[in-house]
Amino acid sequence: MTGFPEPDQTPDGPAYEGRLLDRPDEEVVDQGVSFDITTLLSRRHVVGIMGAGVGVAALAACTPSSSSSTGGTADGSTSGGSTDAGTGSSSGSSSGSTSGSTSSAGTDTLPAEEIPDETAGPYPGDGSNGPDVLEESGVVREDIRTSIEGGDAVDGVPLDFTFTILDMANGDVPMVGAAVYAWHCDAQGRYSMYSDGVEDQTWLRGVQVTDDDGRVTFASILPGCYTGRWTHIHFEVYPDASAITDSANAIATSQMAFPQDVLDTAYTLAAYDGSAANLSQITLQSDNVFGDDGGELQMATMGGDADSGYTATLAVRVDTGTEPTAGTMAGGAGAPGDMGGDPGEMTGGGPGGERPSGGPGGEGGPGGTPPDGGPGDGSDAATTAPELESASA
Asked: What is the pTM of this model?
């Protein structure tokens, strides 16, 4: 007994839940992300039909109220104020289907503009710069605190973060069935699959498919802060389940920022050693990703606290009528896993070079000399952060 689900043998080959296996010689759990997502959508459809009434009541009861959350402002502090987002009743189709009324992840605030296109950075894990987690079965998951294969959860303050994907070209109706890939560093500033010692780990990376409200939610931890960048979470939006296997299919690539008062509180904890010092060296205005508007369009709305855990929500308006302008940066960065590393200073070369190194207190220590290397370490002189406004980790 393997404990894995067994396929049904049909005249056309092995099948699972009525669908032929993409990889007939491998286990059901090893069919890849596209098969996983299709299975998830099929089950969601069945559950929706069987329990529509119960589901609507449960969702209504679980929706966080705007009065209990705080929205980040451009100066990095939180505020309870919000503006009326209105509702969208128009219908239409885009790459991801749209339906229902506009929702902004439990808040009343609708961003004034489209989510800014940003770099995916040098550690995306989507196959565009080395390893590709999107090829792995099991990457479709809500809880990303462990590696896909299991193991211990990463240390840090619990964080449940939710994106609501809205179709800006069709009246900001929710995009239903869009796939969202999210990833970020751990409390020590390390990226799984890249940083020294965790190259074989896949924690803090996962995919979810938007529901009828355009929402996806991930169970994670609050990221740490490494030198040269404001604390952030990366994400890519894909039009549908089948598109997730190629990073070039992303229709939006961006990053979510966090309010300073939340970070100041969490970074007093031992798990975030070095983060407070790194955060003190940068502002939202000086960050080479959020600096254009101080993170106004990418600032999370927060709830909870450092003791019980936080929630973060972000409404993501995607203009499906325009071509995305961002994506992964070829070439490397300093070591995010070393709290003294500076991802804002990039070296020459292309992907596939030396891995980022260390953890807190590695070469240079917090605020110390940035270590050499990172993927694609070359011999050219480093380029400073202001010259790489759209090419940071």
From this structure: 0.68
